[in-house]
Every structure is written in structure tokens, then in C-alpha cells.
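Quick one - first record:
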Amino acid sequence: MKHLLFLFPLLFFVSSGCKTQVKVSDNCGDGFVDPGESCDGADLAGASCANLAFYRVIGQLSCRADCSFDTSDCGGRCGDGTIDAADGESCDGSNLNANTCQTLNFSGGTLACGADCRYDTTGCLATCGNSLLEAGEACDDGNPTAGDGCGTTCVIEEGFTCDNTGSPSQCATVCGDDMKRGTEVCDGAELGGRTCVTEGYHGGDLHCTTACSLDYTACEATGRCGDGELQTTFGEQCDGANLGGQTCAGLGHTTGALACDGACAFDESACTTCGDGNIEGAEQCDGANLANQTCALQGFDGGTLVCGADCDFDLGGCYSVNCGDGSITGAEQCDGANLAGQTCVSLGYASGSLGCQGNCRFDLSSCTRCGDGAIDIGEACDGENLNGHTCGSQGFIGGVLGCNAACTFNYSGCHLCGNALVNPGEDCDGTNLAFQTCVTQGYVFGTLDCSPGCLFDYSGCSRCGDGVANDGEPCDGVDFGGLTCQTEGFGEGTLTCDVACTFSTLGCYSWTQISAGLEHTCGVRQDGSAWCWGVGTSGRLGNGATNDSLVPVPVTGLGSGVSFISAGGQHTCAIVRGAAKCWGENGQGQLGDNTNTDRTTPVNPVGLSSLVTSISAGEQHTCAVHSGAAKCWGNGYSGEIGDNYNVDRDEPTQVQGLTTGVTTISAGGQHSCAVVSGSAKCWGAGLTGQLGNNAFVNSYTPVNPVGLSSLVTSITTGQSHTCAIVNGAGKCWGRNNRGQLGNNSTTSRQFPVDVVGLDANVSVLSAGFEHTCAIQNGVAFCWGGNASGRLGDGTSTQSTVPVAVSGFSPTPLRISAGGQHTCGVRNLQAWCWGANGFGQLGDGTTTVRLLPTRVP
């Protein structure tokens, strides 16, 4: 249920005249209730529609001829099987109004009806993935996917931990639990299938650090083939680029590039012997050895045959007699532009432009074989054909060898990483960090490591401490990178940064509720703590002292369970985990602890240790809703206790007739009002019409304000006037000397009148000493007396109609009209304006404020 209790406290001197007891009671009749009888004639044994838990508490209970109750005029009640929606019932017994867990937005389960005729959803299944932590869920990260810590059924997955302080849940892996999860590279003994060998080392033992990163310190990087060291005792001919000074020529070849293969043996495939005079393999000739061939034998008319440097015939010295006539004859391959229909491609080359030489032989100089996939003379590779070579055979430790467009090896994918030497393109190699540290790399401290790819691993380095919030650091010193308490969802406070450059929101807070009293103010923060400021006389601030405070001070002993607070005349009350607490002035028993002793710290009103849903501190009395019943205590001179007497009460006393169905209550100057099952009830002082029953007299028991028998959702009492929200509209009645009724007049009214302009969508209404405030459609309005600027419109001129509070929109959450000041909550921040002689605005000064000012 919602409680609109922006109690304003109210000041006025209360006469200390004679408080003679007045008791009005009826004769019970002439019947007598015998055992087994519920009633007898007019004798109802003290029963009523109200105390029999019927909703029509003003109904007429009577007795049937058989001495059983006749409840036909009492309306319905919870448990009769009929849903009385107008009385707040969602269900009744087995009658669930055709609803199920699914229609109430749960994923399944069994819906039941509670003893209070409200839906009992404890048997319903929560909707996993809606970012809300619901019954039966261990987490809810906003999605139903697995593998991110919060599983498909909103249970925390093994190896993860989830923080549920906000919405959605924030889940992270648990490093050190021997379970590799999420982004962890490893965890304890779980290495994800990795070994020193898979990481590019020759052997050894791979481990995992306490930060869940790989530890290579026990891997072997030397003493094996591939370490760059030539170890002939182990049969190595070479190792990587280390050829031991050997060359192709040293191995009996003429030219070429000697290499080392992955087994540390010489790779002579690129060595050639052309030029040794011996025709070998695909050689046509070798030096002067022409294999007895001549130009004539090659189909020419004459000329001199020679051997080319590539050991193929050079036919450039041969000639044909008819060469140049455009006709191809004899040994001619071509003649001028006549190429016999041949091209570079038809001749087996990959591409190019075929020409004809002066000796009528093809000019192949512009043809290229690179790209045909076959290894030709002068080509190291061709496309994907690497001729059996690898990075290892080319002297590297590992990687992927490629082939360039020119059919030469592409070594960009090869590396020497792992030979413990820092080669070009490497930052480091194994434990060889090239004398670098985290500090030389620009960090503040930490341990520099080398990655398996021979690049620096900065994960163990930190710039934390240099005063700059670098990448990966939420903060550093006083640099928060633009983060504030506000960006983190709070209204006020200061972020702090720890030595690990992680920020903390412990210094952040938000205001969720505020109450302006006579000359002091109190509020509740999001952590459930209570704070007060302003006049401290009689201990009304609750901090164990009686001195004033210009800034908020914490109320002693309430901890973090405060859900609501109400500042009155010279005392304050709150609801703490369902229990009532009060402190401050107690001369009339307004603290309810069965004494008249002032208290500087909270005490317990008698009998209200649980089930308190609404509380309101008035001028010298207090009222609360306990288990649906209205209770009042303190000054009772004008009948404000509502027990049919005009005497003070030092402990909570039942308001006559209001034993059930009470949803909210409000204590004013010398009168009180409540909402009972959607209708308004008022009692106490009525000399200015504040009871709204079309009279100007006091009443010691509840009366009905005219026309407010239904659709009332909130009621608020000022010093001598009252206001209520009825079907979303604002209505006021009572004293109107300052225009506090908002009906564009200063004439007091003994019945409810409409507040100008507030005919719909009013969400908050608060009556103060001689002014009133409201929130409509996300805009704050005030009207009535404006001494010291309590209306917040930048002036001190009273207004008989609502005026907008300047600078307090859009979307204010709370507003509370006090003595001569007003306070509210917007954007999780507390704001106050008006009189400030005792620091009741909480801004650290005693300066009057005509406009809203923030409370720190």
C-alpha cells in the first residue's frame, strides 16, 4: 500500500485550560446474552460491523430472532468467497477472479489467495531474464542464456559469483576454484588443454597464476631443436637460422640458399649445381657441355648454340634463312607478328605477353610461370605450393609460411619466438625481457611478462597510482574519469578510490523520503538510515542532543531499517522494520511510551513493535495505523485522539470505530484524519471547519467529511485545514486565511472544495501550517501563505491558487509542507526552501531561501 504522509507540523499555542473528562455512551437495551447466543435483542455484546471485520464499518449490525447476528447491512468481508474489489480484495478463498500465475506475469506455478484476500504468489515461478531478482531466483542478469554466470533458470552457474545489489545481477568468474569459466585463460589445475608445447615451448610444466593467467616460468625454451643453438652432439646439422657456417657451396653445390628444416637437418632443395659441366636432372646443357647439340640440330639454318646460365639452351645465336618474311618455316617458332597462334599461357606460363625475337624464336621475357602452382626455376614457391617448405625449414621456430605474388617466400607469418632471443618484431622471448620492466614501459609498478607470441604481457603491470584514470582503471587518486555518485545512480555524495584504483560508492547516498516539521526536517536515505536537521530542542533530532543543527545528523539507534519518517511540532516518529519509534518533546505523551519525559533518542510506543504501516507526528499528538486499525496518543484536549474523550493519552489508544481497513492516517494541529476503505474520516478540533462535516464544532469521534465516502487515496492535515486526493483530484477544507485551500479565496470552508487546476493526476498532497503543496503530472505546486518564500516561486507573496515551484521539475518524487518551510525529493536529492532561522533547510546556513536549495 502506498502511504502519503507528508506531515507538516504545526505550531500554535495549546491552551492549558481545564481538561474535564466528557464521556458519551449508549444504553445497551434490556436483553441479556446467554452462553451460545451471539446477541439478544439490542444487546450485541459490544460487536459491530467493524469489529466483525466487515468492510462497511458504518453499517448497522442487528440481532435476529434466533439470537444470531444479522450482518445484511455490513457489506462484504474477507472470507465470504465473494471478491470485494472496491474494498481492496484481489481474491477471496478459492475465488481467484480467473487469474493464474501466468496472467500475473509469472512463468508458472500455483496462485493462491492469502488470509488478507490478496494474491499469494509464493507458489508462482519467477520470470527468469527480466533483470529482477524474484522469489526462487539466485540471480537475474537480464537474459536467459547460459555461460555468463547466471544460467537459463536464474541459478548461479558453477565457477561464478553474482552480485545482486543492483538490477540486473552482475556475475563474474571465481578465480581459484579450479574451474575455468568465462574469460579465464586457466584456473588452478584447469589449463583448458594447454601445455608448454601447445604454447610454443619445447616442454616443461605449464601452470596457472593466482590471477588465472598462464605461468610459463617452468616451460623449457632451450636445449631442443628450434632453440637456435647448434647442438651437434644430439645430431643437429643446423638449428633455425644457425647453419654453423655452412653453405650450398660447402655442400658441393654451385649456388643457392641453404636452409634448415624442422628436424634440424640441412635443406638443400634450394641449392643448385648448374655450372659444374655436368648435365643433371632437367638441365639441357651445362657450361660448354651442349650434349652434342647444335643450332642445326635445333632446327635452324645455322648459327652458334650456347648454354644459358640456367643450364637451358640459349638459341639467340641461331638463325633461319627465311626469318623475317612473316611466314613460319623450318625451326622458326614465330616470324614477326606471326606467333603461330601461341600465347604465354598456351606455352605453359601463367601469364604475360608473348613476343617474337629477330631470330624467329619466341621472346618469353614478358611471360611468367609464377602463379601456375608449379615450382619453376627461380621460384621458391608458387601459390599454395611451398615445395615442402615450412617456417621451420626456413630457420624459424614456428608459424605459417606463405608465398608472395612474385613466388618468393613470405615470412610474415613465421616467427623465431621461443628461442630465448629477442629477434626483430619481438618485444621479448620467454624470460628474456630485454631488460625491460613495468616501470620502463611507463607503468607505476607490477611484474612484466612475455606472452607466447613474444610480445610484452602487461596484465601484471599497473599504472594505478599515477593520478590518471587510464584504460582499465575506473579511477586513480582523485581522477574518476568523469564518474560521480550521480552517474552511478545516486543522488548525492562523493566517490572514493582505493589503492587498487577501484572506486567505491560507500560515500554515495540518495534521499528517498522527506518530512518538513514545524522548525525541523527529517529524511530517509536509500540505505534505510534516518537523518534530521534544524531545531534540536527537546531532542526532536534524535541524535542524543538538544542543540540545533544546520546540516543533517543521523538519528541514533535506528540502523538501516527505516522506511518512513514524520516530523511534527517538537517531536518526530518513524517506522523501522514495521515498528513505531518516536523521540523529542513528550509533555502530552506524544511519544507513546507511557511517560511524559522528553527523549533525545528513539523510544518504542507501547504495543507498536510490528505491523505498523503508517505514522504521523502532529503538533502535540501522534497517530499510526497498526494492523489495519487507527491508534492515536498525546494531547487529547480537542478530541484529536478519537476515543470519545478529551484527555491526554500517554500510550497508543484505539480510535473509536476504526479497527480495520485503515490505510493511511494524518495528525495535524489539533485534529486527525484517516482513509478507511477508500473513505475519509476526521476527528478532533473543528472550529475552523477542518473536519469537513459541514460544521464548525469539535468531535471526539470520527465523522465523515462531506462527499468523501469513496475513491479517497490520500489525506493530509495541516494546522487548521485538511486536504485529500479524491479520484486523482485535490480537495481541501478548513481554515483559509492565507488561501491554503487553493480555491482562489480566503474564506474558510467546513466542507471539501476543489483546488484550482488540480482536477486530475495529483500524486502527492501535503498540508502545512498555513500553506499546502502537491505534485501533479510530475510538476510541483504550492499555495497559501508565503512568508519566507515557503511556496518556492521566488517571491514572498501569498497565493490563493497553486503556483509552480521554480526549479523543482520535472519528476519530483516527494514534497512536504512544514511550518514556514517546504522540502521535497527530486532526482534522489533532497531540496528545501522557505524559513531557515534554525537551519531547517539543512544547507549549512540560516539564510532564507525563496527558491529550492539542495540539502547535502
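second record:
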Amino acid sequence: MSPATGERLLRFVGDKIHFSIRAEKEFAAKKNWSARLRTNLGRAAARRKEIISAHAGRAVVANSSWRDVPMQKTADGWQIELPLAEVGYFKAKAYLLDEKNWQHWPDGSDVGISVHPNFTRTANTIYCAFTRLFGATKNLASTADEKLEAQLKSLEALGYATLPPSGKFRDLAKQLPHIVHKLGCRIIHLLPVHPPPTTYARFGRFGSPYAALDLTAVDPALVEFDKRTTGIDQFCELTYAAHSLGARVFIDIVINHTGWGSTLQENRPEFFLKNPDGEFASPSAWKIVWEDLVELEQHDVKLWDIIADSLLTWCRRGVDGFRCDAGYKIPAPAWQYIIARVQEEFPETIFLLEGLGGSWDATELLLTEGGMQWAYSELFQNYSGKEVAWYLDYANRQNERVGSYVHYSETHDNDRLAKKGRAWSLLRNRLCALTSPSGGFGFTGGAEWLAAEKIRIHGCTGLNWDSADNIVPELAQLNQLISDHPCFLDGAKLTRLSAPESPVYALLRESEEGKDSVLVLVNTDVEKENSLTLNVSAFRFPLSAFQFDLLGQPLPKISATEDETAFTLAPGAAFCLAPAEKSVGLSGENYRRARAQAAWAIESLNKIIPAETIDGLDWHWLAEQVSRSPKNFLAAASEFAARDAKTPFADLLPEVEAGKIFPRVIEWTLLDARRVTPVPPGHWLLMEDSAPFRATLEIQNEECGMKHPPVHVQSIPVGGGFIACFAPNQNAGEAGLILERYATTSQKVSATIRFLASKPSASRPKPQASDLVLLTNGLGGMARLCVDLGRVNSKYDCVLGANLSPAVPVDRHVFVKRIRVWVNADGFLSPLDFKNLASFKAGSPAVWHFVANAGDSRTVEIELRAEMLEGKNTTVFQFSRPTKKLAHGKQLPAEADVRLTVRVDIEDRNFHCETKRNDGADFYFSSNTHPLGMENIQHPT
């Protein structure tokens, strides 16, 4: 079987995966044998449901996400190729069926496939920001102040808590153009933003951000006081600003402990671990016990739900991923459940494991079965050539198998690189970047300014911001190279060329297309010059051809013979050599754009037809079709599904373009925001905008009144604009569409979508308070009332709008604006309005059924019928109490006193005018109105 049983593979949404199987020699000649692939690929939603239901104790059919996919016969066996359309960890295994339908399985475990979001293919450059440090101390090389320190300690010795000023979210937001545009970082990784302890059980002057007191709150110290916004609002300002620049936001989370006195500890102490003596336990690692923390006990699904709900809250605030501090301390089943809950609503959320204190096996388990995608690399703590080669051999294997091992050049837990000087900082940053998988490279804020003061998470240190001595240009150049060059994109082949113990590390990177290659050379020794000699006979191209350094440096010393090429590198030197200054293959934004379009195509197809039916579609071709017309592509997709995939997809696009196939696509633009957009059954909702955006669809099922989980999409570039789509919806009902637009105007747009039913509904739609009742008399007169009796929506609402010409329709004349009614039921007064409306029936007459309070848990039912008399400018209201048989609830006795008060608001105006109160209007109405006696009231028959 290929891939071999037990193998693990890393792929991305939009990729394809090929499986094949052959029979053993003694069975190869057998006829009537067939092959199947048993897999849960393409069943991400069902897989997540299994995980959630299994742990939550709900009824679920075990392994219901698995199914068998027939494989195609070939000359030497069977094969199948499946597109990958969903994020998740999946499994597959091929087997043979003989003529008796007996199954023949290859030995070994299932193949595991980790499928990551399409956007993680490239440019995973990370800037780690500690928001606290971006305040007044940002420009300092060191914050040490002995005099101030002595003063603060004297206060603290007396029991005072001193809280120095802190950087704010808005301070950090101001630096985003520098981080994203200048440095080229695509991910902003925030150290914890939760409130830390400030008085009770505080460690350090600021309290540790890793001692969170509330899982969904923000630290007030990070918030700028103003009277218009909350702390959460200002955090959302930061995520919006990052998204508008094309970046994503990760936050640090800690779910194996909290700070003492946290909201969770005070309300649910049973979730916390206790020592045998009854004390709450504190977590530990590396023989260190953190006594400002209290450890959670991770075996209760109720706790997992609280954690999952908190992460979903952050996702709704614009967070795109989570750095999972000490994630190895959480059992894999807990992560599996929590991640399934989060990805049920936000499937592209990234989970970055910080597993530096755990085993490598634990990391692999969490990157596969646990559902995570990325992990911290340990390259930052390997220094010699031997250590670097040994660790990168391991990490590069894992990058192809289980997930991306992100190379952080320095972390907040370690000394700053600049402490050992500029050369050391450049060396380590270049080593981490040039060996990174898919541009997975990160550094901590201040590294670009050669900040040397170690970050203290309980304090506030300087970032050396705007220092004249800096490596900003070098880091920007590095990030651009690893983000755009084909040899640093997904699928690149990495081969170590240097000997395991060589002080010069050599890595050959070849692009997936095979059109480009680069040679990475790093002298890991900053003290002395070192040389590396490579035998060229093993290569298909001369190493001496690598004559361009993509970092813009003078070339190292190169000497070549017929069989060997020697490179001599200065102390701490690092190079990225290429045969040409510019790449040949598809690269940079052009590559990301095409890949995004192809992934969008595969995802869209998979929403309406099983993945296994989508065969043989090249991603370049898919991207081209989407770029030409996303509407036509979706129309062809619907027809492809309608014909059960029996007509080649490529044959349908010309038919769509020629108008031979009706496009089941509803296009939505900003012009539609002010109207209700109807979407017929089986139709796509395609959103188009001139600015990039994210969209959320909140669907309300009117039949059962239940909400479906919101659906979130992110736009992709197409042509001169941006598009996203929602698949045909199976449930009729109202939906709210919310767009977050990354533009200077109309940044948040809301609209209403109406998904139509395929057949008329047997149930009447539930009336809304603003719904209108229109009654007419056949002569041009009308009554226009709200279902919410007494409510007025506009100047055209009226109880009596008369047509005063007996011969022709003219502008109606309003004599009565509205009526308001109150019922006095045995002394209990209630208005008859929408709040106590039990039912409404449209027609002529229109019928309201009200159920009003009558005290002592009793009710009284009042029926109101309204109609206009045919041929007369007369509106009639009839009130009655239904008989006991028709009434419901604890009915007020028939002999009880029930009275109505009806207030009629009169006017005397043209339909298009408005009555305004002034002295003239008061005089007019007082002069032309008088009370009617009961004997003058006519009762209609």
C-alpha cells in the first residue's frame, strides 16, 4: 500500500492525495477482486461531532464518519486520488475484496493525514508582542532605575501594591504598520492579555500574565480609558487593525492553571487539583514550582466546555489562533474535544503547541490525534553545527509528516540574542529563518532593535525601540525571502548536504515545481572562520553555479575543482545562494492568490458533492477558472452535482458561459445591504466587494426557532476585487449577514438574507411587530395598521385614509392615524399590543387574538376584527370575548367585569403631509371637534 501503513502526512486544503494498493503475488492474477479505501477524509463535520458527542456522553454512532471509497483498477493494482477540502486530522487505509467479499487488509495501522488551512502554506512569519512593553518604556535599552526601585520596594514592604504604567492595545496598534509592512510579519502573537493578579497572590510588580484571573476578560492595564469603548472594544480594534493590514492574530492561552482567586477558582473550585493535605496544587516544570499559579484538574468535560467556550469567544473577537502554553500538560483527549468544539465554528483556527517541557512523542500525538497544527521548534536551544544538524534532521522529517515546527529565534523565556551582540543575533535569526518550513519563523518584539534586556513577564522591560543600531532591514529582507521565494513555500524539498558534525551547516532547498533551488550555508561558529567541501558528483547541477546571495551580501570564498566545491565562511556568516537573482517558478503573492482560488474551488465543490467524485482537476486550472468568473464556476459546480458528477466538470463551464445552464447563484454586493435578499433553494450566495472582508452568516430556522452554528468565511482576491460564498442552504429561514470590511468606510455592514423553502410552508410565518395590515374599500380608501396595534412606522400608517372623490382615486385623506386599546380585566389594566398578542390572521377582516393578564394567574382573551366596508370610507373594529370553549389558559369567569378603553388619534391631512402641533393646529382641532353622545354612535349590522 502507498502511502505505507502507519505513515503520517502533512497536506493543505486544496491539495490532492494519492493512494494505491497491490495484491500479493499469489493473488495478483485473481479475477473479480476489487479494492476500497476506508477513510474519514471529507467528513470533518461528522468526525468533530463524533469527538464531541463521545466525550459529552451524547448518543452517537461510533465511527460514523468512516466510509468506503471504491478504487480504480490499474495495470498493477488499484488507485485513487482524493482532493483535500477540509481542515483536520484524518485517517485512511486501503484493502482488497475477493470474489466472496472477504476483506484482505495490509498489516499495520492507518495512514494519518494532517490537513492544514490553505493560508498556512507560506509566509508564516510571526512577531511575538508583549503589549505591556509598548508603552512609555518602549524606547529604553534598560528599565533599571535603582532609585525608583528602592522607593517602590519601601512602599511594598508596608503592604502597598504598586502598579507602574503599562503599554496599551492602542500603543501596539500604532506599531502594526512597522511590524506587518516594514518587517513583513504576517502573524501577531500576543503574550497573554488576560487580567493578572494585582494584589492577592501576586508575583512580581505587575503580576504574571500567565496567572489569568478570567479566561475571557482583558487586563485593564492594557486599556486606554475613554468613555466610548470598553477593554474588549479596544482589543477588537487591535485585531481589526491587524486584519486590515493582511495579518492574523494569535493569543497566548494557559488552560492547565489560573492565578489564585480567579473567577474559575472562586466559582468552580472542584475543577482544581489538590494535594493530599487538601491544599490547592501549583504546577511545576524543570524542578520549578510556580506558587503564584493554581493547577486545573483536566478530566471533567464541563471544564473542557468552559475552556472551549472561552476560546470561541476570543475567535469571535478576531483571534485567528492560539499559542498553547505548556500544552503537553493537558491530556490529548481534552485537546481533541476543545479543538473540535472550536473548529466546529472556526475550522481554520490554528493551535500552536508550546511543548518545550514535554516529550517529542507527546508533541507528535498532539499534532495528530490531538488536532493541533503547529509546534515550537527547539532549534533556538541548539547551537553547535552538530546540534543544529541533529535537530533539523528530526524537525524537517516532522514538518513533512505531522505539522509545522516553527523556528522562533528567541522567546520571552530566554535571554535576548542581542545580549551576545549583533553578529550572534543576525546568525541565529538567519539560521532559524532559512531553515524554516513554509516560512514558519518567529521572533520576539525588540529583536529587530537589538534589545538586550531579558523580558520579565512579571515586570516591564525596554525594547530599545528606534535604536540606530538595529537589524530591521536584515529581518525585513529575511521575511520577504522566506515568504515569497518558491524554495520556501510548501512542498519544497529539503536536503542536508553537510556532514553531521560540520560547523558549517548546508541545506539544499528545491521548490516543489523543480524550477528553483537555493543553497543555505550557515557557519554556526561566531568565533572563527570555517570551510565546507562538497562532492559535486552527487548533484545534477554544479554547486559553483550558485553565484547570487539572496540576502544581498558579497559571496563567500568559493573554490571549485572538477569533483569538489569548497565554501569558506566568515565567523557567524549565513548565506542563501541561488543560481539566479530572480526565481523562475510561481512565487509570492501570485502563488498565494492562485492557491487561494484553487482551495476555494475545492472547498466549494466539496460542500455539495463528495470529495471522491472530484477527480483529476489540476489546481492551476481551477485557479484560472475561479479567476475568470467565480459565478460561472459555482454555476457549473451546481450542475456537476445535479448530474451526479457524470459529466466532466470542464465540459460544463462552456455551457454556463453560453447561457445553456441556468446559474443557481445569487450575487450580493454592498448595494444589497439595505434590502432583504431572497436566496432560492439550491442557490449559492456569492458576495463581491471592492475591499477584502470577512463574513458571518447567522441562520435562524423559523420552523423550530433554533439557531444553527454561525458560518464564517474569509474573502479571496479575484480580478480587481474580493469574493466569498456560502453554499446552498438546506433550511429555509431568515439569516443575518455580517461583513467586517477592511476599508476606510462602511467597515461593518449588516444585512438580511431570506433562504426560501422548496415548497410552500404548511405553517404560517410568525408575525413581526412591524408587519403591516392593509385593508381597502374598493374605492381607493385604505387602512394601514401595524400588527403591533398602536404602533406607527411612518406617516402613511393610518386607521382611516379616505378617498374623498366618489368618481376617481385621489390622494387619500387621513382622518384617523391609529387606535390604542386597553383592557381592564377585573381591575387589572393591560394594553392590547404585540406583547400580549397570541395569534394573528391576515385577511379582511384581519383578526387579532390577545391574551391579557387578569390577576391571580388568570387571563382574558380578547378578539379584535378589523375591516373596511365595501364602497364606504369606513373602518370597523369589532371586539369580543371568545367562549370558554375557544379560550385557553386559566380563563377569567364570564361574570367578571371586563371593560375596554379605545383611544382614537384623529387627524385631518393629506396622505403625504404630516400633522405638527402648534397654536394653529390646536385652534383648528378644538374648533372642529365635539363629544358624541352614546345615542349618536352607529352600530354596524
